[in-house]
Amino acid sequence: AQSVAQPEDQVNVAEGNPLTVKCTYSVSGNPYLFWYVQYPNRGLQFLLKYITGDNLVKGSYGFEAEFNKSQTSFHLKKPSALVSDSALYFCAVRDIGQAGTALIFGKGTTLSVSS
Amino acid sequence: DTGVSQDPRHKITKRGQNVTFRCDPISEHNRLYWYRQTLGQGPEFLTYFQNEAQLEKSRLLSDRFSAERPKGSFSTLEIQRTEQGDSAMYLCASSLALGGHQETQYFGPGTRLLVL
User: Which of A8, A38, B33, B89 could make an S-S bridge to A88, C-beta 3.0–4.6 Å?
Assistant: First the structure.
């Protein structure tokens, strides 16, 4: 069965420091991988996705993520965190080999950036 | 703003009542999805449409839930005989699929349902 794990419920970083939000996945085939961000009482905003090709994907607001097939990971990174990056981040996967188009989401990681 | 819109944004109802939510997708998006999100969890897939056809339903979608997309544009999600366990955020997303399943889903702001 497809699944996504975000091992950290919360990540705390100081403004200006690099940040990493971790994501690992389990699929039977090849994955499509996505990161979304959610602000309080709002829907999800798309940040970036990995479909194929270069393992390093660049997205919105200076975020990037690296696809690592051997470690089945897709960690979200940013070189210099901003206080405004504080939000709830979700990793999601779609298994190319399975029928259906639903995204499978992790439980989310709360990012808190202090000034 | 041409994003996904949902109405209402908030709904409080009493147990046993019926509720209906509406989703207007991004114009010309041919796929529309419904997800449910409970506190502390990621969104969980409920159902999706390609144009007006409902192509997939999750086992989470009990008989009390029904969704329609009659003209391939907006969609409604109805919950009959609501239960307290139905309290959640209901999210709608849309996408433009040109073949395959690699397209990005764009989410609306959600409808927060509270069943008393």
Answer: A38
Say yes or no to pLDDT of B97 above 90: no
Residue type, B69: R
Could B42 and A4 be called an inter-chain contact, meaning their C-beta atoms sit closer than 8 Å? Answer: yes
Per-residue pLDDT tens over the stretch B20-30: 999 999 998 99
Asked if the Cβ–Cβ distance from B58 to A44 is below 8 Å, we say: no
* Number of Cβ pairs < 8 A linking chain A and chain B: 62
Where on the phi/psi map is residue B79: left (φ > 0), alpha (ψ -120 to 50), or beta?
beta
The per-residue pLDDT for A77 is: 98
